[in-house]
Amino acid sequence: MPSFADGNKDGIGDFKGLTEKLDYFTHLGIDGLWLTPFYTSPKVDNGYDISDYYAIDPDYGTMAEFEFFIEQAHKRGIKVIADLVLNHTSSEHKWFKESISDPHHPKRDWYIWRDPVEGNPPNNWESFFGGSAWEFNEESGQYYYHAFAKEQVDINWANKEAKHAMFEVMAFWLNKGIDGFRLDVINFLKVNDTFKNNPVDENNQQTHLYDKDQAGILELIEEISSFVHQFPDKVIVGEVGSEEIDVLSTYSGKNKLDIVFNFNLGSIPTFHVDTIFKQLRKMEDVHHEDQLPTLFFSSHDMPRHISRFGDEGIEEERAKLLATLMLTAKGVPFLYYGDEIGMRDLVHHDISLMKDIQGVTAYDLAIAAGKSKEEALVMANEKSRDKSRSPMQWDNSEYSGFSTVKPWIAFPEIREGINVKEQLNQFDSVLSYYKKLLELRRMHPALHHGEYELLEKNGDMIYFIKSAKGERMMVLINFGEIEVPFPSEAHSVTDILLANKRKNVDGTIQPGEAFILYLEGDKA
Ligand code: GLC
């Protein structure tokens, strides 16, 4: 939200800016947007700490500007889903202010309060940002629970009134015309009421056994789902923090979340064809008919994949290959702004410029553990999610056309040629390649929602055949350094819909090449 386009020129992205850029999405062929939280927030964690669920943060504009944005998006056939944080509120939220004010306050139980155990926190649960998940409150002598920052206080979903209040929040935004939600850390809503310690291994790594995926969570998800789906044509995308695809898959499908992210694919730290292929296969094996895989490699929580995966010299090539995969394999693709022009990571050389709480916390913990400032900065950059949060690069001016004043966050060092204006007219730019893929995806049911007839790998080439509505397409993507022969299924093919390098086929797929071949059907 804060980094896409700054309409009122204060250095922070806003609804005015987003509205002005709607034609860009149309031009590119995007038909749905997911916005990170835009509600009033002290922004300790990029807006994932909401202090008023019913208002637009003044940095992002007014309610009227939000409504105008939705209206204009819908006019262009673009759907908008809102990121909603149901797990926790900001410590600045009035509910929490009431809860903390007095142990006998009716809202005390809206949050999770526990007594100390022998002068210590109630248990060993760790915050996902590091350190204890319990914060002591001197006045009452109790601790409150926060799975993330201490300014993000977990709601007690066992409390009926708190739960009801959150359902009212959902209704409010659905009535405003939002097309659905991306539900933040949705498998965290319930914690184990025995409050037992989480297991810790010999390397001091904690397994989050009792603070997520707890009994009753799926019933709660079903309630949320049936509530949201009373409103027609709404979609719920869930962020389910789990590495277990079998666990993930219990959260989606009929009466549950419509889609859940598979981070085993999306957030792999380094490039690995085998892992990518294994995940594509696994999603196919595990998912039931009513479940769709997700296809993404970047987000506001992880480094950009072009920086993460791109071996030196072939960054753009790899970005194009991955775009081919995301936009043609089976599933719902999520593209992260700026990836379509190949934007790079923002790495800080000065800790005072770092905005992300996860990075700053890592820095503070490193210093507290006796590390030097240089070492702490390295560790902070490793954790920092600023990497992918720099301003969108629209042109090659000083502030990249994002704003006319200095933006709230810095730009990456590598910026030259990486902007919309320059790439729009270059036929072989990353942007043009994305545009072409999106166009093909829209035109061809086999690419858009086809089922796999075949999903294979030969060396480092992933290839598959997908079909729908009498159309059959073959996609071949050679991620490796060795040429691979055309698979037998593609021998007779001459009809090439897309090729990223050579426009002809000679029975081989060269390193870094991708092809989309037309096997059968009425070609549009
Ligand atoms: C989700 C968000 C992340 C946020 C966290 C806590 O993982 O994607 O940005 O920090 O939830 O709300």
UniProtKB/TrEMBL annotation:
Domain Glycosyl hydrolase family 13 catalytic intervals: 3-389
SUPFAM superfamilies given in the database record: (Trans)glycosidases (SSF51445), Glycosyl hydrolase domain (SSF51011)
Keyword Hydrolase: yes
SMART domains per the UniProt record, alphabetical: Aamy
Keywords: Glycosidase, Hydrolase
Pfam families: Alpha-amylase (PF00128)
Protein name: Glucohydrolase
Species whose genome carries this gene: Metabacillus litoralis
